[in-house]
Fold each of these.
Amino acid sequence: MALIQKVEVIPVEFKSTNWDQSTALIKITDENGVYGIGECDGPVHVIESIFSMESAHMWSMNPVEILLGRDPVETSAIWNDLYEGLLWQGRQGLIMFAIAGIDIALHDLAGKQHNIPVYKRLGGAVRNEAVPYMTLYPDCSGRGTLSQLFKEYEVLFEKSKNMQVEAVKLAIMPGENISDNQLVQFIKDARNSLGDDMDLMVDFLYRWKDPYDAIDVLKKLENVNLYFAEALLEHDDYVGHKLVSSKTATRICGAEMATSFKEVMQWVENSGVAIVQPDINRCGGLTEVKRIAQYCEAHSIQVIPHGWKTGITASAGVHYHLSTPNAKYFEYLHPDLYASPMRRDLVKPERQMKAGRFVKDLKPGLGIDINQSFLDLHRSK
Ligand code: MG
């Protein structure tokens, strides 16, 4: 048994035109010098301050104080202590992001200490291959014409087919300022370009305030056979999601921003969605997403996590999917389909995909390590 000796938050910032400009890297080292890595998708210097705040009392603790001297194998017990010890700062939002980063790092460290992969720590593989859906965002800026955007998408569709990807998700940025009828035509054209063999998802990026607008578009898309429709309405509009779910045959998603099991419970009880999408690096980590998945399994709801950031979150998604029955897919940003040096280079090695899937292996922990030369260049002060 080697106890936790050091906890670091390393802010990483990479100037780019996309949404992946920064990550809060969490590195937890034991007394033998073995370390685990995690990350969370929050404003990096705010996350940093959570780790340096002073302890005031039992419900307002510095998380590092909770971690030092603990056995990293006890991930769930440590998670509980963090949840109790940070009560004053809040049990949703950025505090849960920080707990998520810690939890991912602890699973990685415990796996490395005991030479087992994270999916075994999560209960073992229920499948031999993790099956990603690829998110395709050619340009997050919302600039350019719709036909230019479609041309960029066609390149990504072709690449995805060559990689034997089984499912892709596209998104139309609100900045494109297109009508609902143009949107319907765009998605129909995308289906024609992709063919019928691939699952197609659409992220509507919180497009509508009125649920009936969303219902109208989804009815026009019934022949397109969408696998799911994401972010139709405002994130916390449970009533609206319930209405849309009751009026359409398409699987409706929600909860991509949800932090904690208890926030997801609100979705399950009130929204009627078929799929929830909490992000592993925001919702409370692997410990919490597994708890969410078990709860949702009892309600016939899939948990297909949002997965937006670097190779750390991508790898956490692989281990989650290998160990979780009620998820047909998990979101994956593939560096060949998403132009992001930070996604491509912060950690190594990039997991190799075979025929659109990731075969399980026996590499300990998450199976990745920090690419120190990239980190040295892009860590921010
Ligand atoms: Mg989304």
Amino acid sequence: MAGQLIVFEGIEGAGKTTQLQRAATWLRSQLTVPVLTSREPGGTLLGQQLRSLLLDVRQQDEQDEIAPRSELLLYAADRAQHVEQYLKPNLAQGAIILCDRYTDSTLAYQGYGRQLDVELIQQLNAIATGGLTANLTFWLDLDPEIGLQRITERGAPNRLEREALDFHQRVRAGYMALAQDHPQRIIRLDAIAAADDLEREIRTILQTRLSEKLCESFSKKLSNN
Ligand code: Z5A
């Protein structure tokens, strides 16, 4: 039985990591199939090196600042490695994988944020993923001003977090367009809500979606507690 790829998307500070970890803990208490977590960039050894190249704030001050198309290709390389080395083998074993960011991030950040050709990015995503799409995507939608305020309180911002507000607003608009194009796969959550309320909402959705997919014989009964 093939597994399930569940992705958490949104701007910085939207609460993706918080909700992904909470959902993983809950699912592990409910299911007998492996529940794994991963992220992009950085889900593999190569990915961790690409992640530090992509997000290291020192790049910003260098003359050889990363060009938008180079950035796009680095994210694609990270994804290709992640899909081949981690996602596909584990999904083939029937795992449920919760992933912090996937293909929609590239469309939102490099397509809408950097204003690179969206159709070209769709083609690149298809190459990098070999056709592996998310089964379900939670989009934590938040005003970028609030998201950036949350992460500023956390500490020094990374290279992308230092982009101007209108960049983050374009990214959010990108997620909006994607959610309209994929209403079955992408579920919008109002990320201004309290973390506990969001957690409950996500559980309810997972309960419905996964009960439809998972075979009773190897899953315990998903419950709301
Ligand atoms: N990127 C790209 O451009 N193209 C691509 O293809 C891909 C990625 C795959 C990855 O950085 C960067 O790469 C990202 C996009 C780009 N841009 N940046 N920067 P990352 O993985 O380091 O950063 P992130 O994904 O944006 O994560 P984040 O900044 O940590 O945000 P988050 O995971 O959504 O939020 P969080 O860590 O769960 O919470 C942030 C803070 O808010 C924290 O203090 C929480 O306690 C607090 N929080 C969480 N939930 C709430 C609620 N509900 N209310 C109040 N406060 C909350």
Amino acid sequence: MNLCNQDSIRALLGRHGFHFSKSMGQNFLIDPAVPAAIAAASQADGNCGVLEIGPGAGALTAELAQRAGKVVSVELDGALLPVLAETMAPFPNVEIVPGDVLKLDLEALAAGKLAGLTPIVCANLPYNITTPVLTKLVGSAPFRSVTVLLQKEVARRLAAPQGSPEGGAFSLYLQYYMETSLLFEVPREKFFPSPKVDSAVLRCVRRERPAVETADEAFFFRVLRGAFLLRRKTLVNSLASALPEWEKSRIQEAVAACGLPEGVRGERLALADFARLSALLAEGR
Ligand code: SAM
């Protein structure tokens, strides 16, 4: 079955009494070249075990299944389970796991269901859970790479070079653990129903070790988040609000000792600057 043909999808979903849900970010791919390109970009091969989030009717799942050793796809919408039972029947290496990806123990899932394979992630993400799902995948789970289709502006921010105004605290958090790159754009017409925004594929490859060394990682992240708390203010003022136990003069001294201009904004700093700054601030505790 052509899982990207709008008429076939409509007929298939209609037969199963399925209705699209906006709240579950259900926009299915309707150009077969797109899921094929995303699956190729994930670099999945026979040694890989792929975690897919939100298989929908299975357009990307089928492409992944033809490349990977195994595909485990987590689907929240129970109404899609009979649809997937039909569309995934030709692929014995696909396992559908019903549930909410945000509630599952992904480390246990990878250890149990993808044992012996290199675990990676590939998905056309539901827009509404992009940040929590990436946070979950990046911070703790064992996945070597994450290749995801998401809102174009978000993908751009997450791949923005460190110290550029396009980035933010979450971009730097992600880049602390992963190397990120923006691969290609997917216009809204390639989805059914068509969303109001365009999309792009972001690829994240886990670093051997975090991008910078930190003596106190929790404090490093507190400083990083604090720098973006008052985005339109200077770094010093934003940090003074975020770290009320630090004298403002102490923060000014640390910023100067890092060789940063007095009026610099947080968005101009790279991870190495945050590592130095948090180490200097920590010295004065
Ligand atoms: N992979 C399909 C495709 O590319 O055509 C569908 C992608 S659609 C953007 C997102 C899918 O994620 C939907 O199937 C939706 O039901 C599912 N979904 C939404 N929230 C989810 C969650 N928290 N956990 C697992 N799946 C979820």
